Amino acid sequence: MALITQKPKGTQDVKPEEAYKWHTVEKLAADTAESYGFKEIRFPTFENTKLFNRSVGDTTDVVQKEMYSVTAKSAANGKDPDDFTLRPEGTAGAARAVIENGMLNDALPQKVYYVISCFRHEKPQAGRLREFHQFGAEMYGSALPSADADMIAMAKTYICRLGIKDVELNINSIGCPKCRAEYHKELKNYFEGRKDELCGTCRERLEKNPMRILDCKSPICQDIAKDAPIILDYLCEECSDHFEKLKKMLKAMSIEYTVNPKIVRGLDYYTKTVFEFVSTHIGAQGTICGGGRYDGLIEELGGNSVPALGFAMGLERLIMTMENEGCDFEQPKRCSLYIAAMDDSALEKTVVMVKKLRDEGFWAEYDLAGRGLKAQMKYANKIGAEFALVLGSNEIESGKAMLKDMETGEQTEISLGDKFIDNFSNIAVAKMFSNVLEDMT
To answer: Average per-residue pLDDT in the chain?
Structure first.
C-alpha cells in the first residue's frame, strides 16, 4: 500500500530515537540563557508580512525570495485582506512582542531568549532546511560595547557546553547610518564598473542597498565583491571607538577572534557590531551562530529609540556539528522496570504496581499486546529495560519476586509489599552509581 503523501521538501521528521539530541541542545540553550539572566519569550509562528518587510529589509534574499507568505481572505465585512508570513527568523517577532507588551517600560536592559521553528524557501542542503529551528537571544536597552561582549560570551559559553571545539569567532563593524552613507557611495562607484556582470537581484540592490551585494550567494557576485572597499575604513569616530572597546573586552575575557571585514550579515536591521561563529566540520554551511547589534530596529517598528542586539543559532547545524565532532548528547531515558504478568490475576496487581512506579517518576512498563511470558521478556529486552520482574500466583502469594538485571542477568529477591518502591529505588540507584564509577575508571 503506497503512502498517500510524503513530508514537504526541505523538512525533516525527528524519530523518537533521535529526539534526545534535540533535548540536549534545547535544555543547554535554556540553562545557558538563564545563567546569563535571559528569560524565555514566546511569540506567534506567523506575523503580518509588513513586519518582516520593514525590519528584515525588502532588498534582502529573505524578503525577495525566501518568505512563505499568504493572504487571508477576510469575512464578508468589507475589510481588506490581511497578509501574513511564516517567520523567517526570530528577531523581528521578538522585537514586536517586546514593544507591544510594554516590556521596554520596565527596567533595562530587557533580556529574552527563544527556541523556535522558522521557515525559508531555500534550496535544501546539509544544514539548511526550509523548516529549521533556532535558539535566539535578544537584549534591549544597552548601547555599550560591554553588552556586545556579554552577548558574544554567552554564545561561546553555550557552544562550549555543547562540547563543540573547532569553532572560530569572526567579528566586524558595519557602522551606523551616518558612516555607512559615505561607504555606500564608494561601494556604488566600485560596483558600477561591473554592473552588467552582477545578477539581476544585485543590480537592483546597487541602487537601494549596495552592501547587500557583499552577502550575495552568486559565485560571480562573490568574485566581483572580493576586492570591494571595506566598511572598517569608513567608520565614524563613535563606531570605531565602539569596535575598539569591544575587541579589548573580548581580549580581557580570553575570547579569541578574527576581524573579518567581509561579514555584513544578511538582514538590513544590523548596525555596528556583527559576528559569526564558524565551524570547520559541516562544509560550506559552516556558520553555526550569527548575530550583532541593531540599534535602529525598535524605533523602525514604532517603538522609542532603544538600542538592541542579539544572536541566533540553527539547531540543525549545531546537532550536525556535534555529530561530526563526536560530542556527547544527553542519553535518552531508559525503561526502569518491566513487569511480566503470567495470568489475569497477576495482571491486575501489575497495573497497580506500574501506576505507583510511574507516579514516583519511574518509567515502568507491562504487556499491552497479549504476549506470552517468553515474548514479554523478549520485548523487555528490546525496549532496553534495565530490570524485569515476573509476577505470577506464587509471587503474589509469597509477597516476593526475583528482580532481574537485564544487562548482567543477576537476580535479586525483592519484597512486593509497601516497601517495594523504596527497595527497587535503592537497587536502581546503586546500579546507577556503579555504572558511573565504572565509567570514571
So the answer is: 91
Enter the C-alpha cell of residue 121.
524557501
Give the bridge partners for 383, in sequence order: none
Q: Which three cell numbers stand for residue 427?
A: 537497587
Which range, of 34-38, 45-49, 373-377, 436-440, averages the lowest pLDDT? 436-440
Could you give the count of Cα atoms lying within 13 Å of 187 in the half-sphere of its Cβ?
26
Which three cell numbers mark 377? 521478556
Three-state DSSP string of 142-192: CCCHHHHHHHHHHHHHHHHHHCCCCEEEEEEECCCHHHHHHHHHHHHHHHH
Q: Which residues pair with 87 in a beta bridge?
A: none
99 three-class SS: helix
Q: How do residues 403-436 score in pLDDT, each as one tens digit?
A: 999 999 999 999 999 999 999 999 998 887 666 4
Residue 324 has which C-alpha cell?
561530526
Are the C-beta atoms of 139 and 147 separated by less than 8 Å? yes
How many Å separate Cα 236 from the centre of its chain? 35
Q: Which residues contact 98 (CB under 8 A, 6 or more apart)?
A: 41, 104, 110, 112, 138, 140, 298
Q: Does residue 210 have a cis peptide bond before it, meaning omega lies within 30 degrees of 0?
A: no
- What's the CA gap between 144 and 125, in Å, rounded? 38
Q: What is the Cα Rg of the chain in Å?
A: 28
Dihedral over Cα of 172, 174, 176, 180: its sign: positive
Question: Quick one: which H or E segment has residue 212?
Answer: none
Question: What 8-state DSSP symbol labels residue 248?
Answer: H
In Å, how far from its chain's centre is CA 237?
A: 36
Give the length of the chain.
Answer: 441
Strands 271-279, 167-173: pairing is antiparallel
Distances (CA, A) of 422 to 37, 352, 356, 360, 362: 38, 16, 11, 10, 12
Residue 273, φ and ψ in degrees, nearest 5: -65, 130
**Which of 115, 88, 101 is closest to 22 using CA atoms?**
115
Residue with cell 489475569: 344
pLDDT in tens, 272-293: 999 999 987 766 568 999 999 9
Q: How many CB atoms lie within 10 A of CB 374?
A: 9
SS3 letters for 284-331? Answer: CCCEEEEEEECCCHHHHCCCCCCCEEEEEEEHHHHHHHHHHHCCCCCC
pTM to 2 decimals?
0.88
Find, among 328, 311, 310, the residue nearest to 319 by Cα.
328
User: What letter would DSSP give residue 282?
Assistant: S
